[in-house]
Design goal:
- The chain has about 500 residues and is mainly beta.
- Among the domains are: about 80-295, no CATH class; about 400-485, Immunoglobulin-like (Sandwich), CATH 2.60.40.10.
- It has helices at about 50-55, 105-110, 130-135, 175-180; strands at about 15-20, 25-30, 60-65, 70-75, 90-95, 115, 125-130, 135-145, 165-175, 185-190, 215-220, 230-235, 250, 260, 285, 290-295, 305-310, 315-320, 330-335, 345-350, 360-365, 370-380, 390-395, 400-405, 415-420, 425-430, 435, 440-445, 450-455, 460-470, 475-485.
- Strands 3, 4, 5, 6, 7, 8, 9 and 16 form an 8-stranded antiparallel beta sheet that branches. It has a 6-stranded antiparallel beta sheet with strand order 1-2-20-19-22-23, with no helix packed on it. A 6-stranded antiparallel beta sheet has the order 10-11-12-13-14-15, with no helix packed on it.
- Strand 1 (about 15-20) and strand 2 form a beta hairpin.
- The radius of gyration is 34 Å and the shape is rod-shaped.
- The two termini are about 60 Å apart.
- Pfam families: fn3.
- Keywords: EGF-like domain.
- InterPro entries: Fibrinogen_a/b/g_C_1, FN3_dom, FN3_sf, Ig-like_fold.
Length: about 500
């Protein structure tokens, strides 16, 4: 079953009330309609990793995350192959011909703007996601591709990576990409300390041009070396000190008039492998396309406790306790048949505004079937790292104990027949082997089948009711009784 396939099971939507200390004030808990977390604006995920935890999703594409309190569509790289475990949000992108991402561009400096479409995994157009502005991140990747001169391979900090180019990868304390690229931080400040994977391949061959006198690598570099500015990049100098005469740089968010990419501007640079210093970029690769990706922290909220299940024929009622610490905003409940190998197509319901004794009612289940359940807790911005798990086997739907509301039914006087059932189904009542008018194939409640009967004979009458649950219409059962129907009282009007 795919992540987007509709569910066959019905979900009972109920509102449960919990009395507070004041008898006139009550807190409401709501079981929302079934949804697939992360696939719609009405059911956003809190993080890309939460989607993976819930469904094991490794399919790249557009999803919905809750950003600054609102459901926002983003492009996620969920494939975990050579991508540092997937779950990356596309923050920015630009083709090599773009002029929208210079150092002083508001797309870098503003935490409110967005531009273009950041919902497709390409470098054919500009794009900035609103996720850049406010989503707390613990890591980021910039991927360079499609240079004007020469080529780059899928290498860098992640060899044979899944980002389609040369990547730089940095981790940092949780902060937005906006904060990271507007806060000055020099990670490496000499040529000797700039790590090779930023500009050399595994054979120690230069991929980008460089100079060996001095190097500065980091974020938001805006001082010294003349106009060699960057939001994320490296500048090089042939001399052993940064003295305002740096000659070579690469990165994103470079100074006005220079498109992001490998931009040596002096012939004294060490040329990139295969390049000639006599070309238009002095041995460099020239402008390049880029993508900027960000990753959130893995979920770390507590796990709910003490799952209890109460099954019937087609329903399981669940209850549990809150995590040991933290304020729970809602719960996510998943369920699947035990015979289903994984959770990729699991059904999911959310319990919002939960009470101190949260519950869920999962209905429309198959009879006599073992189901697996998982319960996750959510705060306003985090979700459980691991779920509370449990199993329950549904019973078999039956009908029993057909009864009459009076011990002495009267000829042609209405009486109420009822029978106990344990699932929603269809019932037919018979008198002397013939269906009672108006009592054929009637819909039952989850626990009761009823019928109004006006006896047409004064004799012993055999009453029988047949029943088949909706979930298994071919599985029928019956119950019967025999009762004496007496005549009408003397003096009553004859019909």
């Amino acid at each position: 079953m795919s992540l987007f396939q509709p569910r066959l099971a019905f979900v009972l939507i109920g509102v449960m009330l919990l009395s507070t200390l004041s008898p006139s004030v009550q807190a409401a808990q709501t079981q929302e309609v079934e949804c697939q977390v992360g696939t719609s604006a009405s059911c956003p995920a809190l993080s890309a990793q939460e989607i993976y935890n819930l469904y094991g999703t490794t399919t790249d594409g557009t999803y919905y995350l809750k950003i600054s309190g609102s459901a926002t569509q983003v492009y996620l790289k969920m494939d975990r192959t050579n991508t540092a475990n997937g779950g990356w949000i596309l923050m920015m992108k630009a083709p090599r011909t773009s002029t929208s991402f210079y150092y002083d561009s508001t797309y870098f400096t503003s935490n409110t703007t967005s531009t273009g479409s950041a919902l497709t995994n390409d470098t054919t157009s500009d794009g900035k996601s609103s996720a850049y502005n406010s989503v707390p991140l613990t890591g980021a990747i910039v991927a360079f591709s499609n240079p004007a001169v020469g080529s780059v391979t899928n290498d860098g900090d992640i060899a044979s990576n899944g980002f389609g180019g040369w990547v730089w990868y940095e981790t940092f304390t949780a902060q937005s990409m906006y904060t990271r690229l507007t806060t000055t931080q020099n990670i490496y400040s000499t040529y000797a300390t700039v790590r090779n994977s930023l500009y050399r391949n595994s054979s120690n061959t230069a991929v980008f041009s460089y100079q060996s006198g001095y190097g500065v690598y980091g974020f938001n570099h805006s001082t010294a070396c003349g106009a060699h500015l960057f939001r994320w990049g490296i500048i090089w100098n042939n001399e052993a000190a940064e003295d305002g005469s740096c000659d070579d740089h690469i990165g994103i968010g470079l100074q006005n008039g220079v498109i992001q990419g490998d931009q040596p501007n002096w012939n004294g640079v060490t040329a990139a492998s295969g390049q000639n210093t006599s070309n238009g970029y002095n041995g460099g690769l020239g402008p390049m396309a880029f993508q900027l990706w960000g990753k959130q922290a893995d979920p770390a909220f507590g796990t709910p406790q003490t799952l209890t299940s109460t099954p019937s024929a087609t329903q399981v009622n669940l209850s549990w306790a809150a995590p040991a610490s933290g304020t729970v905003n809602e719960y996510v409940v998943q369920y699947k048949k035990n015979s289903t190998a994984n959770w990729s197509g699991a059904s999911t319901v959310r319990i919002t505004s939960p009470t101190g004794s949260p519950t869920a009612s999962i209905s429309g289940l198959d009879q006599g079937t073992l189901y697996n359940f998982r319960v996750w807790a959510r705060s306003t911005s985090d979700s459980s790292a691991t779920p509370l798990t449990g199993n329950a086997t549904t019973g078999v739907a039956t009908i029993s104990q057909v009864t009459l509301n009076t011990a002495n039914p009267v000829y042609r006087s209405p009486s109420i027949l009822s029978a106990n059932v344990n699932a929603v189904g269809r019932a037919t009542f018979f008198a002397q082997g013939k269906p009672i008018p108006g009592c054929k194939n009637i819909l039952t409640t989850i626990s009761l089948a009823t019928c109004t009967w006006a006896p047409s004979q004064r004799t012993y009458v055999n009453i029988m009711v047949t029943y088949a649950p909706v979930s298994l219409p071919n599985q029928s059962s019956s119950s019967s009784m025999t009762i004496w129907v007496q005549g009408r009282a003397i003096g009553s009007k004859k019909r």
